[in-house]
């Protein structure tokens, strides 16, 4: 599974007129993007994390795989703890679970599911992609069901579309 954890850092222009801001850049290629834009409705610059959209069937399969993998996965087992070797370990474990449980998952769906498996088992769940954003200086969480706020090097304080649904870790 090919994931680029260090995509090129884009050049972001500083625009005097905030209403002209509309920039997308890659955080975890090819799965997670940042979209920073002026939102006319709220009258502010927003930061949206764009991750793969899962179908209902993909969400069900992801949940089944996660339950099975929780009993199997042991990150300490991986000798070389590079992002690539950890991704490879998650990929092999997930494919084993899919094979053993007889799930029928198309490769396109698997790639999206794999991203979430990696994000949730090796990464920092909902904020993993944010942690790969060179421009984020700080992340603030005011509680469950509240949007996270970030401090961006170029656009400063912004509300995001990322939130935690529960106090429990995923």
- Name the strands of the widest sheet in spatial order: 1-2-3-6-5-4
End-to-end C-alpha gap: 22 Å
The number of strands is 6
Secondary structural class: alpha+beta
> What is the name of the CATH class of the largest domain?
Alpha Beta
Task: Count the DSSP helices.
Answer: 4
The tally of structural domains comes to 2
Shape field: elongated
Q: Point out poorly predicted stretches.
A: none
Mean pLDDT across all residues, rounded? 93
- CATH topology (fold) name of the largest domain: Beta-Lactamase
* Helix proportion range: 25-40%
Taking the sheet with the most strands, its summary is: 6 strands, mixed
Radius of gyration: 17 Å
Strand content: 15-25%
What secondary-structure arrangement, pairings included, does this model have?
Elements (H helix, E strand, L loop, with lengths): L21 E7 L3 E8 L4 E7 L5 H17 L10 H19 L5 H15 L6 H4 L4 E5 L6 E6 L3 E8 L7
Helix pairs in contact: 1-2, 1-3, 2-3
């Amino acid at each position: 599974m090919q994931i680029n954890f260090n995509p090129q850092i884009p050049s972001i222009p500083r625009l005097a007129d905030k209403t002209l801001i509309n920039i997308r850049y890659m955080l975890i290629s090819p799965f997670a993007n940042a979209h920073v834009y002026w939102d006319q409705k709220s009258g502010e610059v927003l930061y949206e994390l764009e991750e793969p959209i899962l179908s209902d069937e993909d969400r069900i399969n992801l949940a089944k795989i996660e339950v099975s993998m929780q009993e199997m996965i042991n990150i300490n087992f991986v000798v070389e703890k590079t992002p690539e070797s950890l991704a490879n370990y998650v990929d092999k474990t997930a494919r084993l679970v899919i094979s053993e449980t007889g799930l029928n998952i198309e490769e396109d769906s698997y790639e999206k599911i794999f991203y979430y498996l990696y994000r949730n088992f090796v990464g920092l769940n909902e904020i993993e992609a944010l942690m790969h954003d060179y421009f984020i200086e700080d992340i603030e969480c005011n509680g469950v069901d509240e949007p996270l706020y970030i401090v961006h090097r170029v656009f400063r304080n912004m509300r995001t579309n990322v939130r935690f649904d529960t106090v429990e870790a995923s």
